[in-house]
Amino acid sequence: MDGAAQATDTPISALSAADLFRRELSPSLDAARRKTLGQFMTPEAVARLLASRFREMPSEVRLLDAGAGMGALTAAFVAEAVTRPEPPRSITVTCFEVDEAMALILAQTLANCADECAAHGIKFQHEVVQDDYILRSAEPLLSAAARFNCAILNPPYGKIRSNSGWRAALRSQGIETVNLYTAFVALALQQLEPGGQLVAITPRSFCNGSYYEPFRRLLLGASSLEALHVFESRRTAFKEDEVLQENLVFHVRRGGTQNGVLLSTDLSDAREVPFGEIVRPGDAHAFIRLPTGGATAADLIQSLPCNLADLGLTVSTGRVVDFRAKEHLRRDPGPDTVPLIYPGHFDGGEIRWPREAFKKHNALADCPETANLMVPGGTYVLTKRFTAKEERRRVVASVYRGERAGFENHLNYFHERGAGLPEVLADGLARYLNSEAVDTYFRIFSGHTQVNATDLRNLHYPTRAQLEALARAEDVEAAIAGF
Ligand SMILES: C[S@@+](CC[C@H](N)C(=O)[O-])C[C@H]1O[C@@H](n2cnc3c(N)ncnc32)[C@H](O)[C@@H]1O
């Protein structure tokens, strides 16, 4: 027998076969449907990582895989189970998958799983529920709960509108949440028996922000957090699908006792950290902090004494929405215009204005219709709301000094009761916002590249005097560390 024939004769694992389906079929899936249903399949290595997180395996596994796609996670669970020193006696899996085309491939993966289990003397039973997991979960039979002792999830991701059937179904189960992925996790948690384990890969956006606070409370209230794995380098988890969202794998146990949390990243080994470092005792918003490489910087920023109100400052979003003010936009300044400032005018912490051959507009007509779009002359700190992924920093600040102006809507600006800031304070504030320490803090707390006015309001700041000292400091990072 030659080498090639031998290779085709060797049975491949259910997981490798599922990964082949993923690589072969994902590119040919209908792009719009793929996006709506969040059909981004888990690559083999990541699926293995999830399955390896289950501490012990019950001897009779009752597994839930909701949004099962092509079945990679169930296959990874089986691959893990068969290599455990004490493998389970039986695995009964329930897979929910709404998409018919996916469900067909899933059936094949499950057949492969059955073969693999049979080869290891494990009884395998499966059920595919080709239906909407959220709506189905609100039906009396399923909502009776506590059916599973293990759950493995890579749920779809997408907003849930407040008037949708999903929202009503979730509400009937006592769940208030705004995204499909948190809905899937919340439901799966309810369907676990006490002591049951759930491992999921999700975006990390739920860790902070007020929208996700009810979800965080539900998660932390109903279960104990056993392990967290953070993908620090963007793109690692789903690089073939170009999903930029930063991902997180978490392992929770329903109703367990909260001990230390095993924390690992794709760049560092696992270590146990006290739970209090992840969720600060008494934190009013129950933020989930991910103290990876930047723990010290985050601590530093969090220990700073002021919020914006203490500084007497406010941050607002630029008022000129250019497509709404089209007739008032001017390419170049003239006698009857004021400067119009875009992110494109940022230049190393200062504003370069006007810009020649600028793709946007340099000026705004000075007329009664535009009066309320302008700020009085003065010094303002501006930050970009959106940063390009290749930009080195999340928060990018520049100082505007000059006459009355319009700030475009892709910017946020710091002001003092609608007017400008003292020069030295503005310089110090811009240097603070552009610091490495603030950048690290944002990376830990925020999974996206947007920097909203709310994010800037929630940031901690040094005192006014300290900010003024920063304007003159030789080493900004050292100065912040000394505050
Ligand atoms: C992010 S993919 C993950 C697939 C698979 N678990 C994996 O890890 O490879 C999410 C899957 O959920 C399915 N899905 C989306 N909305 C659903 C819903 N409401 N109910 C059930 N399945 C859904 C999608 O079709 C897709 O296959």
Q: What is the compact description of this entry?
A:
The chain is α/β, with parallel strands linked by helices and 483 residues long.
Fold and architecture overview:
This protein is α/β, with parallel strands linked by helices and 483 residues long. The protein has two domains: 3-293, Rossmann fold, CATH 3.40.50; 308-482, DNA methylase specificity domains (Adenine-n6-DNA-methyltransferase TaqI, Chain A, domain 2, Alpha-Beta Complex), CATH 3.90.220. Helix content is 34%, strand content 22%. The chain is built from 19 helices and 20 strands. Strands 3-2-1-4-5-7-6-8-9 form a nine-stranded mixed sheet, sandwiched between helices. Strand 1, helix 5 (72-83) and strand 2 (90-96) form a beta-alpha-beta unit. Helix 13 packs across helix 16 (436-445). The longest helix has 20 residues, at 100-119. The termini are far apart. Residues 1-9 and 241-245 have low confidence and may be disordered. Residues 37-42, 67-70, 72-73, 96-99, 102, 132-134, 154, 156 line the site of S-adenosylmethionine.
